[in-house]
Specification:
conserved putative lor/sdh protein from methanococcus maripaludis s2 fold, 6-stranded antiparallel β-barrel, 4-stranded antiparallel beta sheet, 4 helices, rod-shaped
């Protein structure tokens, strides 16, 4: 007889239940062991996939666009000119008798610059005055004769025809006197032009005649410029502004002048007017900057550097040139959005050398890739290594 059969009947079910429980525990443990092994392999495979994707993604550095400056300082060459500049010519013929101011002299408006001897005009004036006296005498005689014949006509001592002839002769004599008087006034006016006066306050920049020089009237081929006068209390500076900056160069815009021979000194002025037209040859806008010159430091005709403070019409963004992509479809930048590449076409404004102005295409929140490779494509996964700025 076996041991199990020898055991009492009440013990057999208990031993059987314990055996089943042991088998069940072993089965559960084996199942947990298998599940743990499967989970470990799944996690390892997921980690491997992530690492593979991470190593396959392009590592890039990014920057954000900077806000453009509200003002641009533009440095351009300029040409200084006197505010008023005029040559002085003679209005009558003769010989230079005397001059009173030489080059560099400061003169006031109406100052006597020179005197001219005009012997021919003087002689013509004397003759004209004599002719005027003759015309006046003839006019008086004609008036007396006409009055006498009118009184004789009342008594029918003379005919109407003869009286009308005398009255007509009086009218002719009056006209001759008026013509002689006008001729005298003309020659007196010419004689007054013997004296040359300064037309405005300024400085004499040229004296082209000397004592005894033959003077011809006018500014034609035979006429000669006697003096040249420039008003330098205020100066005009003419500047050619490139077309790209023409809309910002408005009257009232401040400007500063710098001269190489006066280091450290700046002359302040403002744009007073523009030509309102682009020169088709140079594609520039002519502007005028007016500057005070109370101490005479600025000289007409001098070369000067003009610093213009041009206010931008719209706030723009600037980026370094090493973020630009030059392709056949145009200029673009590569931005990172949600871990992938987005190519953004842009419009460039001003070129500052290391940086460029972007007028459209990007926002201040965009993260732009620095030194993007030529092979980069839209949708490509990337990994941000860091921010350059």
């Amino acid at each position: 007889m076996s041991d199990l059969e020898a055991q009492p009947p009440s013990v057999r079910p208990v031993r059987k239940l314990v055996f089943v429980l042991v088998l069940l525990v072993l089965a559960v443990g084996l199942a947990l062991l298998v599940f743990h092994g499967i989970q470990t392999r799944v996690r390892a495979e997921a980690t491997l996939v992530r690492e593979t994707e991470s190593s396959a993604a392009l590592s890039v550095g990014v920057i954000r666009p900077k806000a453009g400056a509200p003002e641009d300082e533009l440095v351009l060459p300029g040409n200084i000119q006197a505010f008023t500049d005029a040559p002085v010519y003679a209005r009558t013929n003769g010989y230079l008798k005397r001059w009173y101011f030489d080059i560099g002299a400061r003169v006031k408006s109406g100052a006597l610059l020179a005197e001219i001897e005009t012997p021919e005009v003087d002689q013509q004036l004397r003759q004209a005055r004599a002719e005027l006296e003759t015309a006046q005498a003839n006019n008086r005689l004609a008036a007396t004769t006409a009055d006498r014949w009118k009184s004789l006509l009342e008594s029918d001592s003379v005919s109407h025809q003869e009286t009308e002839e005398k009255v007509g002769d009086l009218a002719a004599k009056k006209a001759a006197e008026a013509a002689a008087s006008a001729n005298v006034k003309r020659l007196e006016e010419m004689q007054s032009w013997e004296r040359i006066y300064a037309p405005f306050d300024g400085v004499v920049t040229a004296r082209n005649v000397d004592l005894g020089s033959l003077i011809n009237a006018g500014s034609n081929g035979s006429g000669k410029e006697l003096f040249h006068i420039a008003a330098i209390r205020e100066m005009r500076v003419y500047v050619q502004v490139p077309q790209a900056f023409s809309r910002a160069a408005r009257p009232g815009t401040p400007a500063e002048l710098a001269l190489a021979e006066l280091p450290g000194r700046r002359f302040r002025g403002r744009i007073t007017r523009t030509s309102n037209a682009i020169d088709p040859a140079s594609r520039t806008l002519m502007i005028e900057v007016d500057v005070e010159n109370l101490d005479g430091a600025l000289l007409p005709g001098a070369y000067v550097q003009v610093h213009l403070k041009l206010r931008a019409a719209d706030r723009t963004l600037t980026v370094p040139v090493n973020v630009l992509l030059f392709r056949s479809e145009g200029i673009s930048v590569a931005a990172v959005r949600d871990g992938r590449i987005v190519l953004l076409p842009i419009t460039i404004g001003h070129d500052y050398g290391d940086d460029v102005e972007i007028t459209s295409g990007v926002s201040a929140a965009d993260r732009l890739i620095v030194n993007p490779p030529d092979s980069i494509v839209a949708g490509q996964a990337v990994q941000i290594a860091g921010h350059t700025r």
